[in-house]
Design brief:
single chain, about 280 residues, Hypothetical Protein, Haloacid Dehalogenase-like Hydrolase, Chain: A, domain 2, 2 domains, eight-stranded mixed beta sheet, six-stranded mixed beta sheet, 10 helices, 14 strands, about 25% strand
Length: about 280
């Protein structure tokens, strides 16, 4: 079998929405790499968020920040960041409007004053929308890689995420920041809970092409796995695509194959279906 290059989205694909890694998914990645296939994660997360997960298995590298960062075997191949001028513009815009935001950097996730309380309902809605069991009155703690009290005017920002007070905040951000890529992400049915702002003309597909070129691989030998609309460009640039059983409708319609839910051994079952593992 021709050796494949596998690109895995993280949340909802490799790990579930409660940040748990199915044992079958872990073993599937290990066995696929033993069989000579390359496995990369391809995620909206930045390096600090991935490092915080403490996985006990190796990968061949990662694409992070929705395509802003590319790494192969520890070597940085590409890292595109917002300029300090762009960062200042976003910080000022959010602050003036009372919008809660965070800066996603490889060194950490830097949060504005009031982020823990101001993002609480969005964080709970995200967990519920993705199927997590959230007890009444539960207040999810902030992860350790979220850092408060830091200088928010930085030169290492991959992207911003901000809590939407209404969808109008996203529409306003498109007009305010024509030099940035504006998007949304969130809960059930991909309902918009957050807006985000990142480097223009950067996405997972662009980053995959950069990586494939670097390792001298052909896109026809690349397989993409995902669960959300943001993964569709990744599907379109790879030779084959797999949507998780828990994926959104648009994601499933764009995929070549639909596997089982993440917590029903979906990743491992797809690896077996494709002959990546026995």
């Amino acid at each position: 079998m021709t050796k494949k290059i596998i690109f895995l989205d993280v949340d909802g694909t490799l790990i579930d929405y409660e940040q748990k890694l199915p044992s079958s998914a872990r073993q599937a990645v290990i066995d696929a790499r033993k069989n000579g296939h390359r496995v990369y994660i391809c995620t909206g997360c930045s390096r600090a968020e991935i490092d915080s997960k403490h996985w006990d298995f190796e990968l061949d590298g990662m694409i992070g920040g929705d395509g802003a960062y590319v790494e192969d075997h520890g070597k940085v191949i590409m890292h595109q960041r917002l300029t300090e001028e762009q960062v200042r513009h976003v910080v000022d815009w959010c602050t003036e409007r009372g919008i809660i935001f965070r800066e996603e950097c490889n060194s950490g996730m830097y949060i504005c004053d009031g982020y823990e309380e101001g993002s609480l309902q969005a964080r709970i809605a995200y967990m519920k929308g993705k199927g997590a069991d959230v007890p009444e009155g539960y207040r999810p703690p902030l992860p350790s890689h979220m850092i408060s009290g830091a200088n928010m005017i930085r030169d290492d920002v991959n992207k911003f995420s901000f809590v939407l007070r209404s969808y109008q905040d996203h529409l306003d951000s498109i007009k305010e920041f024509p030099d940035l890529k504006a998007g949304t992400w969130g809960g059930v049915g991909e309902a918009a809970l957050y807006g985000d702002l990142g480097v223009k003309n950067i996405n997972k597909a662009h980053a995959i092409n950069v990586l494939l070129d670097y390792i001298h691989a052909d896109a026809k030998d690349a397989i993409a796995f995902g669960d959300a609309k943001v993964d569709i460009p990744m599907f379109e640039c790879c030779g084959y695509s797999v949507a998780m059983g828990n994926a959104g409708k648009e994601c499933k319609e764009a995929a070549d194959y639909i596997t089982d839910d993440i917590n029903e051994d979906g990743l491992a079952n797809a690896f077996r279906h494709l002959g990546l593992i026995d």
